[in-house]
Amino acid sequence: MITVYVPRDSAAVSVGADEVAAALEQAAGERIRLVRNGSRGMLWLEPLIEVATERGRIGYGPVSPHQVQGLIDAGMLDGADHELCLGVVDELPWMRDQQRLCFARVGVTDPLSVVDYEAHGGLTGLRQALAREPADVVAEMTESGLRGRGGAGFPAGVKWQTVLDTPGETKFVCCNADEGDSGTFADRMLMEGDPFCLIEGMTIAAHAVGASEGYIYVRSEYPDAVATLRRAIDIAYEHGWLGENVLGSGLRFDLFVRVGAGAYICGEETSMLESLEGKRGMVRSKPPIPAITGLFGKPTIVNNVLTLASVPRILADGGAAYSELGIERSRGTQVFQLAGNIARGGVFETAFGITLDELINGYGGGTRSGRPVRAVQVGGPLGSYVPVSQFDLPTDYEAFAAAEAMLGHGGIVVFDDTTDMSKMARFAMEFCAEESCGKCTPCRVGSVRGVEVIDRITGGEDPDGNLAVLNDLCELMTDGSLCAMGGLTPNPVRSALTHFPEDFTVNHREAK
Amino acid sequence: MALLKEPDLGTPAKPGPATVSVEVDGHPVTVPEGTSVMRAAALSGIDIPKLCATDSLDAFGSCRLCLVEIAGRPSTPASCTTPVTDGMRVRIQTPRLEKLRQGVMELYISDHPLDCLTCSANGDCELQDMSGVVGLRQVRYGYEGENHLDLDKDTSNPYFDFDPSKCIACSRCVRACGEVQGTFALTIEGRGFESKVSAGAGELFLDSECVSCGACVQACPTATLQEKSVVDLGMPNRTVLTTCAYCGVGCSFKAELRGDELVRMVPYKDGGANEGHSCVKGRFAFGYATHPERVTTPMVRDSIDDEWREVDWDTAISHVARRFRELQDTYGQGAIGGITSSRCTNEEVYVVQKMVRAAFGNNNVDTCARVCHSPTGYGLKQTFGTSAGTQDFRSVAQADVIVVIGANPTDAHPVFASRMKRRLREGAKLIVADPRRIDLVRSAHIEASHHLQLTPGTNVAVVNAMAHVVVTEGLTDESFVADRCEDFDAWSEFIAREENSPEAIEAITGVPAAELRDAARLYATGGNAAIYYGLGVTEHSQGSTMVMGMANLAMATGNIGREGVGVNPLRGQNNVQGSCDMGSFPHELSGYRHVSDDAVREVFETLWQRPIVAEPGLRIPNMFDSALDGSFRGLFVQGEDIAQSDPNTSHVTEALRALDLLVVQDLFLNETAKFAHVFLPGTSFLEKDGTFTNAERRINRVRPVMPPKTGKHEWEVPGEIARAMGYEMSYKHPREIMAEIASVTPTFAGVSFEKLDKLGSVQWPCNDAAPEGTPTMHVDAFVRGKGKFVPTPFVATTERSSRKFPLLLTTGRILSQYNVGAQTRRTANVTWHPEDVLELHPHDAEERGIGDGDEVTLASRVGRTRLRALLSDRMPVGVVYTTFHHPDTGANVVTTENSDWATNCPEYKVTAVQVGKGVTR
Amino acid sequence: MTTMSPVMRMAHDISAQFRHLSLGEAADVIADHMRKFWDPRMRAQLVADVEQAGIHCDSHVAAAARLLRSGGG
Question: Where in chain C are the domains?
């Protein structure tokens, strides 16, 4: 039997992976063992067929269903050459140059196979952790330098330490999988491509802080991820990886999936907790911080999917090894997601420090339209627009902050030179108005006024006066908002104004 | 006084000593740990601008007006949600902050109507105030942008309007509805700019779950939620602090007047009982005081078939005195008597009982507590040594297990219910013993751990079985029992008998034995356990026994004598406690001292210069019986509608008809007045000057908002009757009456109007040993020394269902109405409860072919009435329920003469009845 | 039952509570309760009613009434 891989990842499925898989079964069902793996993250190559050979896994893609028979006829199952043949996948520059820790198994294994999981290093971290005292596990996390991958970059070890130090019979571990930022999809790919990794990371967290229950809060737009996670959790229970006595250690940990209801704000951790409690997703004031007063008022770890999925490897290899990667205070790897107007989009995990230029023009291959890049938005809809002149910025939390930008969740959306940046600024305010929870005044009212003021500016109505109003509003939203939603909305607005002021003048707009 | 504006420190107080020192704009202040920067600043004398913060609600952090700078931090955190840390240096006024605050206000005003000058909140609007405070001078966004100015006003509630165009989305109303009231009727609908306050799912306020407690109106910083009376009359300009005259919670209110016109009643934050909360009755239902049906002139007639004649006070009083003396001359000194009212002040009650004992020369005085809480008096006196609840209301915040027996606090004691619900939401466990599934059993964020749905009339069996579990499962608090109590062994031998086991009584009570065992274990082992009870305990043939049964249970588990525990009657009327304290019972002088006690009598005889009869006099039901046998001929009834409120109406009216002289003093020509020969107009609480004592023994001041509409203070009337009967009894002011009460009553020795005006209120005992009163009783020893265990065998009531009367009727109250409805029926509260209805289980209804809303006949062995059916699975099969607020229904037409064996408190809660469809049957 | 006088009805209600005591103890408690809470006229009425009822009267009530009569009401 020849093992053939066709991804089950929803990005691959959206471009026909299921049909390709069906065509393969039909054409060569008796000769192959078909594995539905996760995606390798080279989304321009999906659907990507991989055939296991003595040389390694040979890739073919992107494949249309009608091309399958031809590929088989051409000897694909023996790894034969073809115009769609990419060679050994692991040796493609995109794959070869990455440092995949978090995504090590994604695209490689069958996501729901416990055999695959353990064969590829799964459970090593959890076993290491269970053999150690909770405080030692937290110390390992602190040493690793891992910072929250959800966007804020708060040191995970410090957060865990706080939960560990807060007395309480009931504690929770919550995974924030409400991945709502534009141009981000790494959480989803991980949940679909290696769900056990997240489960293992959460279980380690539970042991480290003394939690007995965990929740994964997944956005409703991710039905495949929800299904995969639920199945994986069932399997984990069947194998004693979850439940009353995890791996025979005496640890009790129960894990549940909860599905959101389509509100962007529920990606904000306190809103997510409100939503998990069955309430309207509204931001809580901090303090108290969730680590002390979290879900149902109990001490709670709230971490992003990628943060928790980084944990097993840290425990397996040690915090010191992890912290050797990266630069400055940004340690380890970041999972970059290249999206928007880009030739080669997808997931690229590598140590912090790589420049935007390397990512976008190097691995990404520039714009898909072939026109020059004008700007990229990094870190989601609340991230700044970075002009090409700053493409030498190293990906580092502090370097970005110094440039009034942010790395956020690692999403990078590319725009070419036809983009009207005043429209992008307006969109930022519109997005905020649409998604604001409505609790605090600067965000609730300010975002609506922001749209109106930008319209006045671009309409030529007292541009100087209204620019001053807009600046004051941005300052108010930054300093005065309750949470990052309102607080960061000025980022895209201000960066557009700073780097592309000409887009806000009437002359420019009329010229367009 | 001028209009009282209470300080608002922004966030609630934190408990504990002041240990954290901070500096606010250079001013040092030391506050308890956990205090917000906002509150610390306010305590140092500096108000930080705010809109969403108010000290009755947890900090919310939404308006962003209260931003401050803190040394060492780059951000500008909200002062309401930021707790102080030692050594913190806070800046309140900096150019950066000023600009931010102006920016926030600019946003608010860009979406707010600019009609301040004609707005009903003009002068009492925090948005207006803050606009001034931050120095807003322009709104650069203009007023043409997206806004909410066209939203429709909701005027459906009879007492307040909701104008969403003025809403600033601060959520204070929503939070008040949840945190303070615990109803969670309000919510924010939509998100972002579309966020809108909503009563339920887009409903009108009137159609929603809203209970009209007024908390949202009070919390609203603008005119969005506004009393209709303020809209109609304008802003009040002066305040009188007084006490509500509805239930036994005894809420303190600010009566806010415009000149002499009462504009609104606003709950007072410093009120010990209510701490700033209210219910629909106290907050809004005061219109009866000026209702056109009020009678303000004395009236006389020779026969009850004659028309009334208006007379002046002197004529009325001399007529009353002459007729009483004639009756005594003909039929003997004991042929007349009086009934005091729990609606009246302590001072008014005291003078009535003094008139009876000193001027009438007998002990034929009783009070309406006879028909409600007399078993409480008896039972707690026997076991603990004094006739009162053991705790203050605040104590419930320390309870871990709350037991509610025969009480429906969310309807009958709503403000206390809100305090209780807050504690339940914090995690305290709840046990409810009630035949009916009252709201508390399952409501927003609250679910009872155990609902013991017992058959009416089996309370004692249930409480005995709980005690049985405690004793037989080794859950007794041995050291408490050994140190603090007596007669335990005999009691425990009795209670441990198999006949008292949950299994043995299951068939009688209908309560599953396992459930009852679990409830008993929870009570005994769940931490501080507190019992709260109502008339579902007392109004039974074993009412007094049940009170003692609960006292036994509390003592056996050591749940007495500290905060968070106790045995607590929820008193029905504003001054039940007080009227009992004042010596209204025929066997007791003030302070619960028996008339046979020579030393006690001597105190009164010396002061009053009259001999006091050493034998008990007649109780209310005995008066009726004696009237029918001809030995009792004249009665003075103060503020109580016995013809409607007492059981077995036909028996009562027959007795009243038999009297030669019935004198009624009341606000309205009530049902009793139909049988009266003299009607003396009474005063409403808005005209009274005196004190009420609530269920927690708290003596509160009642202050007059207006002069008596009758031209005479009610406390003057008994003195004038007494004088006309030849006994000199006069006071210049009610404070003199309280001074006399204090001089003859050891538990009141330290009470005076001066002290009450200074401290706000005190809880008796208040004397040299406890100059500022006693919140918790029996702390180191019981009032009687040792707590006494009294065996309480269960004796089934003789009132039981039969083939002819197969259902059991039980009665109660509803939120919007009060008792016989004399007051609430004369307010807009009838919006919610225009008639009494009969609740019955759908199964019982179906068997009788009764549909929801059908008119039905309710019949017992003594009478029949008709009312509308309400099908409800709150009721167990076989039990029906109604209220007694409307005279048309006259629920007491069907209740019987059965009563508590010890006190004659009527057995209102169990009547065997039949229900039939239609009115003829 | 309906033919019973009010004081007889009340006396029976009271005596029903003390079935667990011996006749002598119960009579003491019942009589004591009546002395404390009943108007002397009611006690006199009871004594008269019990005499009239004779052997048809409940034994506890009768015993209490005897105490009331001998103890001067």
Answer: 6-70
